[in-house]
Design goal:
Length: 115
């Protein structure tokens, strides 16, 4: 969010996303800029992407078994990273995030109904 000052209104339609995507052009040594990049992101775009992501996860979780052997699944925790354009993604195997933020989704099974 932009700094609040008496002269500057808060922009409620945008938020800041800090990513580890390259933030600077090539340098003298030919190395691409490393570090972080702060990008404005429309809240509406993030809202749409989160909704789609949750719907996709819903399909996966609906097919997950209640039990596996002696184990009972009560809760599923999923972490998603956000790109500068608001895309949500789950990190796959072999990918290591440096400074990681993103969103954490926790899905808990509801009590079984007796209907």
């Amino acid at each position: 969010m932009p700094k609040k000052t008496t002269d500057q209104a808060v922009d409620m339609d945008r938020m800041w996303v800090v990513t580890s995507e390259p933030s600077a052009p090539l340098t003298r040594g030919g190395q691409e800029g490393r570090g972080t990049s702060k990008q404005p992101l429309k809240v509406e775009e993030l809202t749409t992407n989160v909704t789609i992501f949750i719907q996709q996860l819903g399909k996966v979780l609906e097919s997950a078994p209640d039990t596996l052997g002696k184990f009972h699944f009560d809760e599923f925790e999923i972490h998603a990273d956000i790109s500068a354009d608001g895309t949500l993604a789950i990190l796959g195997s072999g990918v290591h995030a440096g400074a990681s933020g993103g969103l954490k989704f926790v899905f808990r099974r509801g009590a079984a109904s007796s209907e």
